[in-house]
Amino acid sequence: MNSNKTIETSKPSSSSKFIPLDFLEIIFYVYIPLIFVPVGLIGNILIIFAFSKKSLNVPKQHRYYYILTAIGDCVAIIGRQLLLTFLGQGLYALSNYTIIFYISTFSVGNCLFSYNAYGVGEMISNYTMAVFCIERFICIKFPLKAKSLINFKRVVISHFIIVAPLTLYEIFHITLTHNLVPTSSGPIPQKCGTDESLPYVVIMTLINNFVLKYGHMFISFIFNILLIIYIRKAQILRKKLLSNTTNDSSKVNVLSNSEITTAIIILLSSIVSLISWVTHSVLSQTEYILGNIAVENPAIKSGWLYKLCDKGYNLAKSILIFGHVINFWVLILKMKSFRNIIFFRYSALSSKFSSSIAQNQKTN
């Protein structure tokens, strides 16, 4: 139920030393953010840059999906990897335990801001992709009806109806249930987490974890499974029909193979996210229970199970954020049209910049 580590320990005195990071914690709190933040932000900014041109030969609603997903990914990366992980803990280890930047532990306000940034970005990105999967299924299976049913205005309205309430609930949930709580792992004595003392935290966390967090994964999983099955059946049927009139039926599959590849990539992404989130939730809750038991038996914290939960939790969290980092690089590798769009936008800007320099030189 608890998606954040909230181990109850006594708060260290001002004279106590902060807990040094071990090797794996340095990887999770320092090196992974140092890679994920620039790679993810640059990639998603390039997506926004590529699809912001109105004259591109890309459906308006598809540009809307790509841009909104990239914005959500940027906000999620800044909230989780930059504010909460690196500036909150990793900078302390990177500076040889001298610089402590309490971005998420300086005050309750900073705590809520950091978590809301991550939560809102995650909701926007994940559920925009879920709505996109539904639209792709409708457009491919019912192409004639899709032309009359789906347009940019309806896409924006339907997306808003789905995403806006979920995002507002995420803000509501984080604001009401999160507070500064003591911690016994990592370099800081307290961090932003779920305050288990609140009477309504259990039901709100259940709704958040099992509806909001799993919902988009199941939507993506179900609609992409249905899409793959439909396309394969259509390919087999077309092949049988064309085999009576031509000897070369190999060209038939080309029509839909790109759609299958896209569906498989999204499907695998949803499966990895589902496994990671289940692992994240189970290990987090197990560590919380062990942490409470350790109040009376401190030896538990040096045991293998507690350490496994702590490291596994951080690994699962890194895999979840990886999904927000990799979108641009998947598009670059998979979509030739996207590579052409990037090249076109770069060429146009370079030409404009060169013309501006030449004009300035002529003026001078």
Descriptive notes:
The chain is mostly helical and 364 residues long. The chain has one domain (23-346): Rhodopsin 7-helix transmembrane proteins (Rhopdopsin 7-helix transmembrane proteins), CATH 1.20.1070.10. Helices cover 74% and strands 3% of the residues. The chain contains ten helices and two strands. The chain has helices spanning 23-51, 60-94, 108-141, 143-149, 152-177, 201-242, 254-293, 304-325, 327-334, 336-363, and strands at residues 178-182, 190-194. Strands 1-2 form a two-stranded antiparallel sheet. Helix 1 (23-51) packs across helix 10. The longest helix has 42 residues, at 201-242.
SSE layout:
Layout (H helix, E strand, L loop, with lengths): L22 H29 L8 H35 L13 H34 L1 H7 L2 H26 E5 L7 E5 L6 H42 L11 H40 L10 H22 L1 H8 L1 H28 L1
Antiparallel strand pairs: 1-2
Helix pairs in contact: 1-2, 1-8, 1-10, 2-3, 3-4, 3-5, 3-6, 5-6, 6-7, 7-8
Mean of pLDDT: 76
Q: Return the CATH architecture.
A: Up-down Bundle
CATH class: Mainly Alpha
Strand line-up across the major sheet: 1-2
The number of domains: 1
| Structural category | mainly alpha
User: Tally the helices: what do you get?
Assistant: 10
Specify the overall morphology.
globular
Evaluate the radius of gyration. 24 Å
Sum this structure up briefly.
The protein has 364 residues and is mainly α. 74% of the residues lie in helices and 3% in strands.
Which properties best describe this structure?
364 residues, mainly alpha, Rhopdopsin 7-helix transmembrane proteins, 10 helices, 74% helix, globular, disordered N terminus
